[in-house]
Amino acid sequence: MLLKKTLKNVGIGASLVALLTTAAVVRADAYTPFAAKLPAKQVSVKTANLIDVEAETWPGFSRSFEILLDGIQVPKNTTEASACEQELAEHAVAFVKDFLAGAKDIMIIDMKMENSGQQTAKADIETSKGSLTQALLSKGMARPDTVAPDTAWCQ
Questions:
Q1: What does the DSSP assignment read for 39-58?
Q2: Given this model, what pLDDT does residue 4 score?
Q3: Cα separation, 51 vs 97, whole angstroms
Q4: Between the CA of residue 43 and those of 34, 50, 79, 101, 125, what are the distances in Å?
Q5: 11-30 pLDDT, tens per residue?
Q6: Closest C-alpha among 105, 101, 75, 104 to residue 90
Q7: How far apart are alpha carbons 139 and 129 in whole angstroms?
Q8: What is the pLDDT of residues 87-124, one digit of tens each?
């Protein structure tokens, strides 16, 4: 009798732990809290893959976001980076500024966030010129984020 009761309690406890663990994993997934294509205005370019924008998330309600281009790495302009990588990073930022400057419409595509209160979101940015992510990749100013981060940018 005592063994049955103990097994029953352990079973309930294990089920509760499994349920709470699953709920935590589900909550950690990013989701798209706003329209799949959200019109935006460029505010500033911090790096080639981090762009500040302002978007109207509800009629009459604008918010600022940091858009981190999803799925890519870009060269860094830091003291730890080689001179070649720093130069490539400067060219990439200039390219992004030029890409966005002439755009009539800027759209945030499939913004992913852990919750709608965050300021930073992963997404792509599109203009009449196409996808910013794809443009950076095609110009060699970005690479897929599946490449090892310590891989040199310059030979």
A1: EEEEEEEEETTEEEEEEEEE
A2: 54
A3: 9
A4: 19, 11, 26, 10, 13
A5: 554 444 444 444 444 445 67
A6: 75
A7: 14
A8: 999 999 999 999 999 788 999 999 999 888 889 999 99
DSSP alpha helices (H): ranges in 102-125?
Answer: none
Cα four-point dihedral sign 139, 142, 145, 147: positive
Map out the domains of the chain as residue ranges: 1-29, 37-144
Tokens 């060219």 correspond to what residue?
91
Note the Cα 42 to chain centre separation in Å. Answer: 16
Question: Contact at 8 Å (CB) between 120 and 66?
Answer: yes
Q: How far apart are CA 141 and CA 155, in angstroms?
A: 14
Looking at 2.40.50.90, 2.120.10.70, 3.40.1440.10, 3.40.190.80, the CATH number of the domain 37-144 comes to 2.40.50.90
Residue 137: which of 52, 71, 76 has the closest Cα?
A: 71
Dihedral over alpha carbons 42, 46, 48, 53 (to 10 degrees): -20
